[in-house]
Design a protein that fits this description.
Two copies of one chain form a homodimer. The longest helix of chain A is centred in the N-terminal third of the chain and has 27 residues, at 55-81. Chain A contains ten helices and no strands. Chain A has a domain at 67-212: Tetracycline Repressor, domain 2 (Orthogonal Bundle), CATH 1.10.357.10. With 224 residues, the first copy, chain A, is mainly α. Chains A and B meet through helix 7, helix 8, helix 9 and helix 10 of A and helix 7, helix 8, helix 9 and helix 10 of B. Chain A binds a DNA duplex (30 and 30 nucleotides) through helix 3.
Chain lengths: 224, 224
DNA sequence: GCTCAATTCAAACACTTGTATAAATCATAC
DNA sequence: GTATGATTTATACAAGTGTTTGAATTGAGC
């Protein structure tokens, strides 16, 4: 019973990873079969089991990559908007996030995979939380906290951030219905996405400002 | 080959419907097996095929009920808030919707089933759109339009409504992650849900008012 | 050229799924 | 009571799933 070298970087191994990342992101863990993956990767059925032990092993490696990439991607976004004034920071955060999620040309399978895991978690969810979400939580919070004129231990920070994130993700998650309700021929072109992002920005900025004007509620313990 | 009377109302048939509604809402069409349903309904494997032709037939009947019930539920909510001033209307709409979605005691499997179909549609999605969503679209729109001081053919109406709906649904859909990020022991008690709903209301009302203050964009054709 | 380990391959296995069949049971009208 | 049709039951089937196996192929090191 031959064993592959620990994490050897074979050509087929790479192909399987690349192909399955797309498939998993688009269809979810349960709706992708090993045979699909291997056919798309032009290799044998047993390749997945040989290189990744089993389907879940492959998936976890894909998720690992997604979580790391997500962290890097989010860090890049946050870096890019760092020097801007707070309002522009929010505007561009929303714009970039929605493009990653909605633009079909944007090959951002990582956002999609994580959006999927968020709604329908598998045993790999903890990886995503620890490596992909938690590390940028503090910077995300600071972006909102500054607009609120408060600190991270103010519960309004997370409620507002979730309201922003919720609007962005909702457009992605409700796409199947949106496309059916929209007039025929509708597409998520870059211009449409920009317009939606601008709406979410305007809507959210006003929401945040209104809450900033209210008396501060009791602080909460802040967890890292 | 015996055939059941058209839509006979047998006891087992009722049990299957009731049990599978819960299961489908909680786990989605693909993650529920006929054997699960029949075991929970304390009947034979073949009962589903006998009474509903096949699994999809059963599911479509469940969805039919959900779509009708959804329409009725939404109508009731809209009726209940009708006499209130516009702001209170929005506040209570958000509050009731979030309770239906999040309260574990609330046995509102219909909202959950439809939320699921929204994100991961099956061949039954059209039923939901036509019977469960479209019929109340106009009233939903009017609720927002009034706050915006505009008419249904103003694109801001739908963008704002989706922003509100998006926040509500997001809390439902991201529950798996939320529960893991939240401090241990966290639960969606009625009080917690009320607080969240109040936040969404405040946030959204400010967003809507800010957009109302802007110059009106080009109208769009309004589809029934 | 040979060796030996890593890698690929074809085939099969064990299991679950939805569905179909035919017999058994039940209920009701005559 | 019996006949007839509706319902329930036990069982089998075909297709699809992830996984395993053992042989074939490859390729680098000597």
């Amino acid at each position: 019973m031959p064993q592959p070298a620990p994490a050897a970087d074979t050509e087929t191994r790479r192909r399987i990873l690349s192909v399955s990342a797309q498939l998993f992101a688009e269809n979810g863990f349960n709706h992708v079969t090993i045979r699909q993956i291997c056919q798309a990767a032009q290799t044998n059925i047993a390749a997945v089991n040989y290189h990744f032990r089993d389907k879940l092993g492959l998936y976890k490696e894909v998720v690992q990559i997604a979580a790391d990439g997500m962290h890097r991607l989010k860090s890049d976004v946050l870096d890019a908007i760092e020097p801007q004034p707070p309002e522009e920071r929010l505007r561009n955060y929303v714009r970039l996030t929605m493009h990653h999620l909605l633009d079909p040309h944007e090959q951002s399978w990582m956002e999609k995979l994580i959006a999927r895991e968020t709604m329908e978690p598998t045993p790999a969810i903890d990886l995503i939380i620890e490596k992909g979400i938690r590390p940028t939580a503090e910077r995300n919070g600071r972006m909102v906290a500054e607009l609120l004129g408060t600190t991270l231990d103010d519960p309004r920070v997370w409620q507002c951030f979730l309201s922003v994130q919720g609007q962005c993700l909702f457009y992605k998650m409700s796409m199947p219905v949106t496309m059916r309700m929209a007039p025929p021929g509708f597409q998520y072109t870059p211009e449409v996405i920009d317009a939606l992002a601008e709406h979410v920005y305007q809507f959210s900025l006003a929401g945040i400002r209104a809450l900033a004007a209210q008396p501060a509620p009791a602080k909460m313990e802040w967890r890292p």
